[in-house]
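Supplementary Text 2. Reproducibility record for the structural model of the 181-residue chain.

All settings were left at their defaults, and a single model was retained for analysis rather than an ensemble. We include the record here because the model underlies the residue-level annotations in Supplementary Table 4.
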Amino acid sequence: MSAAAKQQPTPAVPEKATPDSAATAGASLPAVYTDLGRIIESMTRRFLDVLRMELARIGIDDLSPGQALMLINIGGEELSVRDLLERGYYLGSNASYNLKHLVEAGYVDRSASQRDRRTARLRLSERGLKLCEALRGLEAVRGEALIRSDEEAADLETTYRTLRRLERTWSDLIRYDTPEY
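Retained model, structure tokens:
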């Protein structure tokens, strides 16, 4: 093989889309919007993977990341199963299975409502509260590592507001079935 042939660049392989690639490549706003769903779904999986690592790091092997998120959504409150379902966007059968496991494992106390005995009330047990406190501490460490400057803090706040607005927009679209925002 000649020296000239060896020095020829290899053809560029198209890169997989990244959060910045659509915007910096001059893609249209509809293309960026379409890519958002994929990015959000991928971030959700990554977040659950990080949570799985954190659970393993603190020696919790009897909970899935989804169950740990359920504990975080209950937090320090007492709430109904329905409130939890709405807050966490869980499917009924999946939530029932996970709640049963959380109660049996001693992370959640479940009792009948004083007003309506058919309604279950949920609150974290002492074990659940301790786990949530540990997870919040780990989240704080991760959050601090993510923000290294005032500019990064501002970027994160903007991202948060944008994602909340997108969530409200999609929720309103589902609830009111109107494409007008």
